[in-house]
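User: Quick one: structure for sequence A, then sequence B.

Assistant: Sequence A:
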Amino acid sequence: MDDLVAKMLSGDRLALSRLISQVEARSGDLVALMAAVQKRCGKAVKIGVTGPPGAGKSTLTDKLIAHLRKKGKTVGVVAIDPSSPFSGGAVLGDRIRMQEHAGDEGVFIRSLGSRGSLGGISRATREVTKLFDAFGMDYVLVETVGVGQTELDIMEIADTTVVILTPESGDAIQTLKAGILEIADVFVVNKADRDGAPLMQAELKAMLELSPRAASQWTQPVLLVQANKDQGVHELLNAIEDHQAFLRQDAGKETAERKRRIAREEVKEIVLEELGTRLNAVLSHRALTEEENPYQVAQEFLKVLKMPGKN
């Protein structure tokens, strides 16, 4: 593995691809792998692109790639696809939509299966973004599945989260219920040529003034975009860069707490996955019956895992 990591860090795309496959398959010594790349991370700008199905996430991601490449930036893309119900693998629709970048050495697109994750994020997503970062990508774009009200995990990975809606997304009140007002750093009303786009933009702006984030030092912009015609994408990139500049400033308590929250979530994610692996190993050697008290059995498992239970 050390040789593979060394090749990846020197710019070998094949080594990068193999390491991503290893991370997604949860094979090999992931702890050693991520420890080896951690010290090379921290330079890439991570952008999350999320929103309901059909909002145009892939089209907008494709346009963002093109604009970033024109600026001479290298781009890694993690496209979270709905997993196949049979194989668990990723459906490669996003790759197909981004084919014009397939031969560009400055772009690396990888589809990951969501594998049942409710937050629209594959469990390997965070590690893959770190591999892209260590590889030297300037930007990492993470496009989520688009499962609507549960897409909150992206804010624990991305530096800047872009939420895409359309005039057909429904009453803007539903957006508030979905918690999207809390996670978005930039709003995009895509397909802005359709009826209702200016109204949705106005409603979102009004709701943002009443949201808990209204007191934030960062004012969330609401942009009208036609991604398929590449209209408004330049303004979106400017908004993303403005947010990055805001994060680089001494924004005080708000930015510090955001960094602490992301660090906590990463540690929690690692611990929970390890516990799940150990629990499955214990369960595989324990025949359960319908008559047993599941709470009592759970306490037994906690003792085996050397964790204190609750009475």
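Sequence B:
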Amino acid sequence: MISDLTEKMLSGNGQALARLITMVERETSDLAEIMRVVYPHIGSAFLVGVTGPPGGGKSTLVSRLTSIARRKNMQVGILAVDPTSPFSGGAILGDRVRMQQHYLDDGVFIRSMATRGSHGGLPKTASTVAKLMDAAGQDIIMIETVGVGQTEIDIMEAVDTTIVVLVPEAGDTIQTMKAGLMEIADVFVVNKADRPGADYLVAEMESMLHQNQKQSWWKVPVIPAQAVNDIGTEEVFQQIERHREAMESSGNLLAKRAKRRRTELLRSIEYRVTQQVMDQVERDPQLAGYLDKVEKGDLDPFTAAREIITSQTLLDNWLRKARGI
């Protein structure tokens, strides 16, 4: 079944891609096999993250950028991260609601994902889903985050270019968020630029960026736009292309992707070890005893952790069970 699905997906079958994404989201036992098969086929797509405060017009901007990409005959993947429904556990907003104009376009693949308790703006499976879209032949993949502010550092690590969307009426909210957003953005977009205060916000952001330039090889632009009226969106897309060119010529694109792969490995190991340790708690009386002492306050977590990882008996038992012996 997996080989059949992956073969269809690699040939551009959208239904197969959708089914594989569902399996990734559910973290089924086939996840490792799926990624083993598709991994040689990834690396061609360029990943763009779109983030910023809620209500800033991120979805409209993504829709406009998608239209521009399609005019350039690019295959587009859209990963829209939405708040989790308290009832179903799924994404509150659906594909059709978000991107109606592109829904029937075979050159655009749209997927909504729920945050599912993630505090970094992205569900932990988002990067894996983006890899499936990459392997399926998407030229550009846009990841739109839920928009929770300064905690959205995950998007910076998950994509090649990060766009931060601001709006002039955000006022004090923007003031409190600027420090974090300055570190995240490769391109700033001041959306709804027809509203009062937009010119001031553009000038203020440009002044701050001039004083705190991150890299010598890239000057972060601030672009006024009205996404709903399709004004300024062409320039935003041009800046994405320019940033990609700057990253490629400076060697930073390869370096960033190498760092991303390293981070993914470490996180994967951390996740698997954590899951196995939690499973062991129910089976190993010694490990369960440590947990009980910590919960009662009889032993501090740091001492308990040190004793656990230095216990040869516990480590031997854990390794034996991890190997299925």
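The chain has three domains: 1-41, 42-250, 260-322. The first strand starts at residue 46 and ends at 51.

User: Thanks, that's what I needed.
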